[in-house]
Amino acid sequence: MLTAFKISAFITAALLLQVTILPAYLADPFKPNLLIIAVTYLGLKTGRGGGFVAFALGLLQDCFSGIYMGLNGFSFLSLYLILNLAADRLYTNSRYLMLFVVFLATIVYGVLHLLLLLVFPPATGIYLTILAALIPQALVNTLFSSLLFSFPRLNALEESR
Amino acid sequence: MWELFRKYRKYFIVISLLLAAFIFYSWNLKHKERANLFERGVLNLMSPVNSVIAGLNRGVAEIWNDYLALVEVRKENKLLRHNMKVLNSRLMESREALVANERLKKLLDMKNAMQTPSLAASVTGEDASPWFKTIMINRGEVDGLREGMPVVAADGIIGQLVKVVARSSRVLLITDHASGVASIIQRSRARGVIKGKGDGTCSLEFSLASEDVKVGDTVITSGIGGIFPKGLKIGEVSMVKKGEYGIFQTVEVRPTVNLARLEEVLVLLQQPAE
Q1: Longest dimension (CA), chain B
Q2: Cβ distance A49 to A23 under 8 Å?
Q3: What is the largest CA-CA distance in chain A?
Q4: CATH number of B118-268
Q5: Cα of A88 to nearest chain B Cα, Å
Q6: At what angle do helices A71-86 and A95-119 cross, to 10 degrees?
Q7: Cα A126 from Cα A110, distance rounded (Å)
Q8: Nearest to A61 among B128, B134, B172 (CB)
């Protein structure tokens, strides 16, 4: 119960930070997507039940991003499943590997968006914007995840698992 | 004689002393600029003592001024620092109020100039993704807002309402890929559709190559489509490219409103045509 409360508090804080506070200081495309970091963590560290959480996180992101409800829901769920399948083959206790996975996850997330928006073309020319923003966002996400993963509390949580 | 002296000895002595003092005084009047032997002796004897006492006095005075008086100075310093902070914050507040006042005055001028009733709203958030361009405002259904209503700022249009909930709404900015606004070039009346490019600029689509469009031209809303009223400023043409082939020209438009720094907006309370 307490863990669920902590996770909810983290997600609320991340969303507020992402939507209200960070845009005031960081210009596009250098705004981090903190929920991708959360989904990466869930994909690598939790069981199959985390899929529901990832999908819910995607829908939550959809409420604050773009006009296509379900786009992030699908992307986050796909991302979670890919990471969950690969988690057994990865040494997830390594912090550097986690950072690299966050970088890759952001790229995959962007590519999934690209495919979904190209298959159902509601917005022509968006691929240029996505491609231009993808690498900077992946780097910013990696930077933020390095800060998050350096919190001793998170490391302690991992060790207890 | 001796008896007389003994009888009045006291008076003799007093008179003699007075006389001697008078003579001493009158004799010294001639040499008043110079120190006499007595003065020299006294001054020479006292000057080292004088110096020591003066030094001690200075020391005590310094201690008093530099240490004991510093207690008051410290208090005064604290008070002055506090006052400085208060005044600085007031200065910041007044500057902020001045800037906000200018912004709101512009918005009010715009509101008064519009025929359509409007409602002011504050921007509360931006899109969580870098490739979509939407903002959140603090007004919603309870304030009479509906999807499709146009949103403007003092310098021109911003976008239209999407996803309106009870007390907040999302605004699809004109720079988003999904946005399209029917428009005309103010000077030549050339028609087109302003589409967002996702990078803070727009493009004028479906503008025939034969149409007269130049860099610096002002682009305004045409009123076609029933969402935006006619004649609202959208932006300025920043680039025109006419290919040898093809029937359309490439026109890039820079919005007049700085969409990255929006704080207050005006929602036009007109129901969009179905």
Answers
A1: 155
A2: no
A3: 48
A4: 2.40.10.350
A5: 30
A6: 140
A7: 11
A8: B128
Q: Which two tokens stand for residue B153?
A: 């700022």
Q: What is the pTM of this model?
A: 0.70
Give CA–CA dist B88/B71, Å, rounded: 26
Q: What is the C-alpha end-to-end distance of chain B, expressed in Å?
A: 150
- Judge contact between A75 and A112, C-beta under 8 A: yes
Task: For residue A66, give the nearest of B208, B170, B58, B220 by alpha carbon.
Answer: B170
Nearest Cα residue in chain A from B203: A125
Which residue of A20, A33, A137 is in closest CB contact with B125? A20
Sketch the domain layout of chain A as residue ranges: 32-160
**For A93-123, how does the pLDDT look when each residue is reduced to its tens digit (9 = 90+)?**
788 888 899 999 999 999 988 888 877 766 6
Note whether A70 contacts B: Cβ–Cβ < 8 A.
no
Among A22-31, B26-35, B125-134, the minimum mean pLDDT is found in B26-35
Instruction: Name every residue whose Cβ is closer than 8 Å to that of residue B177 and which is 6 or more positions away in sequence.
Output: A123, A124, A125, A126, A129, B132, B195, B196, B197, B198
The secondary element (H helix, E strand) that includes residue A99 is helix A95-119
Q: How far is CA B244 from the centre of its chain?
A: 52
* Domain residue ranges of chain B, discontinuous segments joined by +: 118-268
pLDDT at B74: 80
Residues 6+ apart with CB under 8 A from A63: A69
| Closest A-chain CA to B202 | A125
